[in-house]
Amino acid sequence: MFLFALSVAPSAAFAQAPPPGQLPTLPLTQLDERGPAANLDNRTLTLSFAQPIAVKDLLLLIVRGTTLSIVPDPAISGSFIGELRNVTIRQALELVLAPLGFDYRADLGLVRVFPRAQTTRMFDINYIATERTGTSTIGGDVGSPGTAASASVASATRADVFADLARGVQGLLSERATFNVDRKAGLLQVTDFPERLDRVAEYLDAVQDRVHRQVEIDARVVEVELTDESARALDWDALARTVSGAGQNRPAGTRAERAGLRVTDAAAFMAALGAQGRVSVVANPRLLALNNEPAIVRSVSTEASPREGAGGAPTEGLVLSVTPHISSDGVVMLSLSPIVASRAPASDSQAVERRAIHEADTLARVASGETLVISGFTRERAIAARSGWFGRNTPATRARVAVLILLTPRIVAP
Prior knowledge:
Helix content is 16%, strand content 43%. The chain is built from 7 helices and 21 strands. It has helices at 38-41, 55-62, 89-97, 161-170, 194-211, 236-242, 266-274, and strands at 44-54, 69-72, 79-88, 102-107, 110-115, 119-124, 132-141, 150-159, 178-182, 187-192, 214-226, 261-263, 277-283, 286-290, 295-302, 314-326, 331-344, 354-359, 362-367, 371-384, 396-412. The relative contact order is 0.10.
């Protein structure tokens, strides 16, 4: 036997007025349709089907023996194969209907089943609607003039944020979903089920958090004119002893050039360089670069010649192509292609001054605030010293010059 208690709210004519200063009590008009309900959660059932059964027939079996009435929409179709063991009516409805794209609503003992409705949501894409492509080629002929030997490294970077977003969003949507990307307005419109839209929102937040990261790169081209005439390169062992954490595993007594070095204290490193020769900064450009976007800085001086006219070839300076990748832990990976141009003294058989071109292409990881040192560029410089009566005698001596590139990336907070 079931006992039901029904309470009826008094009519407005017999309701007592609320005390002064207190708002009147409003009648309860709607319950949470997904909240606990006795007719959906007070009993469990077990059903097993080895052969397909129509969903409409299965719904009738689920509510059989209860006080619930079920009304499926005419568009409801499909079949079910499987086993439902010790589940409540609510769980059974969700397990059967959700995979088929259907939903239900319970209201006072009546369960209505209908196709799930899709909703449309707009998402902002805060990025410039341009496709950027960066290409760099490092290399040239090797050996004497006329030989065919050559070595080169070519790298290319292509960035199209809107195209990448479209491919990523498409993989998160259902088969019936639609979406549109408006590059000019920076807007993404998606029509799909609510849980799919939530996944798209999480994906867009993660993408925009990464593409908006940027780094400031302080680049310095440093020349060190070695004071030790017998030295062919910098003494990296002495630099390692001066700068903490640099070159601890290097064998003693070696003076070979280093391809790259991470320095935590740039001022101490510059002071250590000054102990081995005269230090001069050739160029010191700064640039801001977004995550995975190529950036190029060019700082050169040119001299016009009668043949080249006003737009002569670069004589001295730096051309730096850099593409940074900024990780979440504060580490910056740099794809670098520096080109350093400098004057080279003429040999005994050549009276024309030459230009020395130093090129490199490398990948490196460095923490924010650390300094990456790229070395291995050495050349000779002719130095004229006046002597004799009235300084007419100017014998030329040659000094060994080491060229270094110091790069200090610093992650910029948004």
